[in-house]
Structure formats: C-alpha cells, structure tokens
Design goal:
binds adenosine monophosphate; binds manganese (II) ion
C-alpha cells in the first residue's frame, strides 16, 4: 500500500511536495477522465492527490481504482459551491471516510441546485441573445456532466456572441455578472458542518480568488472556523509570494491547517497536476498532518467501500 513521504512542516523548502489536493475531471468541468487525471498525477510524481470535482464525487470511484493500480494515495473529495455574504465561496471537502450520513443528501441537493441554477442562467443568457440556451449548454457539456458556467461560456462563444471564454466570463458569467446565479447554493457554514460531521476536513478553496480585502478575508476565515472548518488553501495554482506569506499569517492566527492544490482542469494550460507556487516557511501545519488525514494515510490510504462514495 502506498505510504507517501510528506513533510511534517513547511520549512521554506520550495517543493514540489508531490501533493495536489484540488483537481477536476470530466465528472465536473475538467477535460480528462478521472483515471486519466490519476495517470497524469502518477507521471508527474504525485503521491497524495484529491479529486475535487464541483459538487460531486461521481469520479472518485474510478479515480480510486486507478490510484490503486498506480500505487498512489487518493483522498475522496468534492469542491462544494456555497454562499457567504452574497458571494459564491468554494469549500473543498477532503473526505477520508467517503460520503455518508447527511452528506449523501447534501450532494443530492447540490446536484439539484446546479440543475435549477442552470435553468435560471439559461433564461438570462437567452436575454443576451443565446436562443435555446439550456440545450446549447448541454451540447457543449455532452450528455453526462452536470451543467456549469463554463458550458454556457462555450455556448456563447460557439454562437459568436463573444470572442472567447475569458470574455464570456468577464462580461456575462463571472462574479457579480448576470450569469453568476448563486441563490441556489447552501450557506458556507452549513456545508462546512456536513463535511466535518462526515469525518472530513473542510478546506476554504482559493481564498485569494474572491476579490476580498484582507479584512473581509479574515471575516470569512473566522466564519469558517466558527462552523468547524479546519483548513484553507495556502497555495492554489500560481500566486504572489508576498500575498501567500500574508495569507499564512491569517491562517496561523486562527489555528488553521494549510492545503495545497493546482486547481487543474485541462492539459495544455499553464497549470498541470502538482504545479503551484512555492510554499513559504510558516508555522501553519500542512493539512496532511491533520489527524483525520494523517490516520487515512497511515492506514494505507484505503478508500472507503464503494457504497460510501
Ligand atoms: P460553476 O461551478 O458552474 O459555478 O462554474 C465555475 C467554474 O468556471 C470554475 O470552477 C472555473 O472552472 C470556471 N471559471 C471561472 N471563471 C473563469 C474564467 N474567467 N475563465 C475561464 N473559466 C472560468
Ligand atoms: Mn471549475
Ligand atoms: Mn473553485
Ligand atoms: Mn476547483
């Protein structure tokens, strides 16, 4: 069974650590099948990974099976869409015990919320001139995946209404634009509660990507902690080293653990599994030293039975 060798603390070693706890597959808005994400991780020397598709664990079983073949450690996970202070906030649930209890209904609720949200986004995109918006987004997504904003972005591009995906987000689908429909998501504190109750570790995803002031980010971290959340991503993809150090101070002040992830979605971009900015020297402990995850790793990373996924 795999026993990844992981540092106990961040002492300024720039890495890479062979860890990536935030990645996507075709189970949500990623380009690669779950087993192909695992194969790419293995190729890139990753020994501990989490597949964290948006609001689903549908890819985890396939990924866990592939991880066994590659002798690497896979943590079941999902990136939950939540609502906090009128903003969409993402929380990665690292789920060593898989999905059980209230989390089963929670994920069903997330799927329903995503579907209901897609219908509202479609109405709003139709007002922008995208006829049959829902069908066109579905065409982009293919028959299996739950719809996400990237599918609407691609549909806008395909219809010639915007030149590219970046413009689609900037004008119509990004934070605060008409297509950013968030009323359907549960409150952050509620989601954190579900993850923690299922034996998981709730990680605030990419705290630097919400456009928050330092003070407001602190309030978000306070609410995460109050709800039982244990960690935040100190590094997500590439970020400014000064800002990372500042974020480390905010985590340290609150006793939070630090997670790391690339937020990989597709090959050929500037991000690959395991690629991310270096971690500065900090007293903030790595999330894999959290007892819930350390036990999982020490027990040989045995994924929970398929019934619990
Ligand atoms: P959703 O989960 O449906 O709310 O869609 C959010 C996803 O859209 C994110 O996880 C990213 O993968 C993608 N996304 C967000 N902003 C952008 C952007 N500016 N350009 C391209 N993709 C984006
Ligand atoms: Mn995404
Ligand atoms: Mn996210
Ligand atoms: Mn993500």
């Amino acid at each position: 069974m795999p026993m990844p060798r992981l540092p106990e603390r961040f002492d300024g070693d720039p890495g890479p650590f062979g860890v990536d706890l935030h990645m996507h597959s075709t189970a949500s808005d990623g380009a690669l099948a779950p087993s192909d994400v695992v194969a790419l991780c293995a190729e890139r020397g990753i020994s501990l990974m989490a597949l964290s598709d948006h609001d689903t664990v549908a890819g985890v079983e396939e990924a866990a099976e592939a991880a066994r073949r590659h002798d690497m450690c896979l943590l079941p996970a999902s990136e939950f869409s939540t609502r906090w202070q009128g903003i969409s906030i993402h929380v990665v649930g690292l789920l060593p015990n898989g999905v059980h209890g209230a989390l089963v209904e929670a994920l069903e609720g997330q799927a329903q919320a995503r579907e209901a949200r897609a219908a509202v986004i479609a109405q709003r995109m139709e007002k922008l001139g995208l006829d049959d918006a829902l069908a066109r987004a579905r065409e982009q997504a293919g028959p299996h995946r739950p719809l996400g904003r990237p599918d609407f972005a691609r549909a806008l591009v395909a219809a010639g209404l915007v030149p590219d995906i970046a413009t689609a987000f900037r004008k119509h689908l990004g934070s605060g634009k008409v297509g950013d429909v968030k009323a359907h998501w549960p409150a952050l504190t509620e989601v954190v509660g579900w993850i923690v109750a299922a034996g998981g570790v709730a990680v605030l995803a990419h705290p630097l990507r919400y456009g928050l002031t330092r003070r407001k980010r602190g309030l978000l971290l306070d609410d995460l902690v109050a709800a039982g959340g244990q960690a935040a991503e100190l590094v997500n993809g590439f970020q400014n080293p000064d800002v990372t150090r500042d974020l480390a101070r905010q985590l340290d002040e609150r006793g939070l653990y630090a997670s790391l992830g690339s937020d990989f979605h597709f090959p050929g971009g500037y991000l690959a599994p395991g690629s991310m900015s270096p971690v500065p020297r900090t007293a903030v402990p790595p999330v894999w030293t959290h007892p819930r995850l350390a036990d999982f790793v020490a027990m040989g990373c045995d994924a929970p039975a398929a019934g619990a996924l």
